[in-house]
Write a structure and sequence with these properties.
Serine Threonine Protein Phosphatase 5, Tetratricopeptide repeat, 13% strand, disordered N terminus, five-stranded antiparallel sheet, flat, 550 residues, alpha+beta, 14 strands
């Protein structure tokens, strides 16, 4: 059997993956398959010696050394494996009557992503130490400081990916220290908040908040929600900054997800494929990491939608995205992010009622909802015909984080457009076109909004950008980036595209016609006079996508 030097090996075969370090077998969609220890040991031996016929006697000696067992024990192990492989079993495991067994699938080996030593192991959460806020001045300041600290402790702990401890607390490597002061001046509550690196004492973030007091003994409405969201957002950014500076071998599961999320949100093909590899590494390092499954589901969907990377086939990719999202929701049924990803995966299969119900459940969840969850839920509601609900969710995301990624503004533009407000939609769509020049759905929406507001030159320019990004794209509902429950919405988009100059979708003639219509128009963007933002490339870790990844 395998020696100690092989204990950190991952075997990929057919549509399966066996991780010897964690003792797990994964099937399509990264589903964890339950097999008994001896069946697992048999499979590992066959993977270490693929393509060879192994006699029953030799296998019995290997699996049960110095123990007398009957042939039935080996037969049961083989039966367990065939059951785990399902209809793929004949392509993986071959039985030669009266002679033995052979693993016939092609086997690829790689080092386990978590094999390299890491001082933080597979840490999943940021560590926050919350100190009692100080108070200044007379009156209610002291009572409000105690109340604010208590409420923050509860609220911050409800965020996904955060572990919070009241001070004093022992030494915690990598932790952040949150503290501040409360002052009351007349009817105004003043709060100063800071985040320090617990190890060095360096202040990494500071902010002032002011709210009008309605009652001297009560915190103003929304102050705890706003402050806690700001604190968590800055902790995430500080962890992301640290992760960018670390060697790849030392990245934790959480850091892989943070870096993957940053690349995913850039909206480019190269960054999306880097994100895909990072999320795959995260769930390989921990098969029970719910957020890793949720982000991977969304990235798999995008790769399929835009036709990026190695083709898996439309049906396979959509099924995998749904399986990953279901796994995420099973692992964390109270997670808004996991539920929002499941809702989005469901619309890929046109299961609209389930998708809407799941999105609304995510929005009603008692835990705080971040912009990523709000974005996904809003996109589901927009395409399912509930655009006004989507607008409210996206406006909430922007109120919690005015600096959230530009995709939020792009999604808000589409929601406003489908809510019958094309003039209002243009501002947000212009923002998205400038900051996400590779995000084709924004240009699709901009074509419609520009046509419906009489800006035909801008519509043609937006269409040219959409064709540049996806030259062979054909406008059809429930494919590519178009997922509309109501045919009237799909017809509305198609009518606008035709008005902008797309006469024969998906052919060279269409592109020639469009080039003749708008040969020298600038790319779609903000009105004349508004400078185009400079696009700064992200610092990409040189992550290689696992060979033959499922």
């Amino acid at each position: 059997m395998a020696g100690a030097d092989q204990q950190a090996t991952v075997y990929r075969f057919d549509r399966f993956r066996l991780d010897t370090l964690r003792g797990t077998l994964h099937g399509p969609g990264e589903t964890v398959l339950d097999v008994r220890p001896k069946a697992f040991a048999l499979l590992r031996f066959l993977l270490e010696n693929p393509g060879r016929l192994h006699g029953r006697a030799a296998l019995l000696d290997t699996l049960w050394p110095d123990v007398v067992v009957t042939d039935d024990s080996l037969t049961q192990c083989v039966s367990d494996l065939r059951h785990a492989f399902g209809d793929r079993a004949p392509l993986v495991l071959k039985t030669v009557p009266r002679r033995g067994y052979a693993l016939t699938a092609e086997v690829r080996t790689e080092r386990s992503p978590a094999a390299s030593p890491s001082p933080l192991g597979t840490a999943h959460t940021a560590m926050v130490i919350l100190e009692q806020f100080a108070s200044f001045g007379a009156g209610s300041a002291a009572a409000l400081a105690h109340l604010l600290t208590s409420e923050l402790l509860t609220e911050v702990a409800r965020f996904e990916g955060i572990s919070v401890f009241p001070a004093p607390h022992g030494e915690t490597p990598g932790a952040f220290r949150v503290h501040g002061e409360v002052r009351v001046a007349g009817r105004i509550l003043h709060v100063n908040a800071r985040i320090d690196d617990a190890a060095t004492g360096e202040t990494r973030w500071a902010e002032r908040f002011e709210r009008k007091l309605t009652r001297p003994s009560e915190l103003p409405e929304g102050v705890v929600e706003t402050l806690s969201a700001a604190l968590v957002r800055q902790v995430d950014r500080e962890e992301l900054r640290r992760a960018r500076q670390k060697p790849e071998s030392e990245l934790t599961v959480r850091e892989l997800c943070l870096l993957g999320r940053e690349h995913h949100e850039s909206g480019t093909e190269a960054d999306t494929l880097i994100a895909l590899a990072m999320f795959e590494r995260a769930i390989a390092a921990d098969p029970n990491d719910a957020l890793g499954y949720a982000w991977l589901a969304f990235t798999v969907q995008r790769v399929d939608t835009y036709g990026w990377g190695p083709a898996e086939g439309l049906r396979t990719a959509r099924e995998r995205a749904l399986a990953l999202a279901r796994r995420a929701a099973q692992l964390a049924p109270d997670s808004p992010l996991c539920l929002s990803r499941l809702a989005f995966a469901l619309i890929l299969h046109q299961r609209w009622e389930e998708a809407v119900m799941t999105a609304r459940a995510a929005l009603r969840m008692g835990r705080p909802t971040d912009y990523a969850s709000l974005n996904s839920c809003a996109e589901v509601l927009t395409h399912a015909g509930h655009a006004s609900e989507a607008v409210a969710a996206l406006q909430r995301a922007l109120s919690l984080d005015p600096h959230c990624p530009p995709i939020t503004r792009s999604l808000l533009g589409r929601a406003l457009l489908l809510d019958g407000k094309p003039e209002q939609a243009l501002s947000d769509l212009h923002w998205g076109a400038v900051h996400l020049p590779d995000y084709v759905p924004c240009f699709h929406s901009l074509v419609v909004a520009a046509v419906e507001t009489g800006r035909m030159e801008e519509a043609r320019a937006a269409l040219r950008e959409a064709i540049r990004l996806q030259p062979n794209w054909i406008p059809r509902n429930n494919t590519g980036t178009w997922f509309f429950r109501r045919e009237s919405d799909a017809d509305r988009f198609l009518t606008a595209f035709h008005a902008a100059g797309l006469t024969d979708p998906g052919t060279e003639q269409a592109n020639d016609n469009l080039a003749a219509v708008a040969p020298r128009l600038p790319p779609a963007g903000p009105p004349a006079g508004r400078p185009r933002a400079r696009r700064t490339p992200l610092r990409a870790h040189s992550v290689k996508r696992p060979a033959g990844g499922a």
